[in-house]
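Let's practice the habit of predicting before peeking. Look at the sequence and jot down your guess about where helices and strands might fall. Then scroll down.
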Amino acid sequence: MIERKPNTPQNSSELDDDDIPDTSGPKWAEVRANAVVSHGNKIISGDNPRIIKALRGRPPLAEKKIATSIRLDQGILEFYKASGPLWQTRLNDDLRRFIRMEVAERDRGNKASHRTRSAAASKVRKKS
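Done guessing? Here is the structure:
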């Protein structure tokens, strides 16, 4: 038969003060001073609570995102939403990829006119 373990406290209010180790001694001060903390691609060493507090949360992005409102065709929105979670990230990636292609095309001197792109876009809309 399986032996059951005695119940253990489920939250900190059930813990007795004697159960919590004392971390204020010199041994723990040395551990904290030698600890290496990383935040994103930054590595921070030492026992500086202000730095640790400032670095809580998600690491900063290389390029900040800006909340905006944009009007899209219903089909485009449905397509991206149907692709599952993180659809906004995929839409952003596709727009970034398109911009890179446009810049590369412009740099090669093959810049298409606005009318050509508009005509191609209307053909795509008619097919769907």
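How did you do? Residues 22-62 form one domain.
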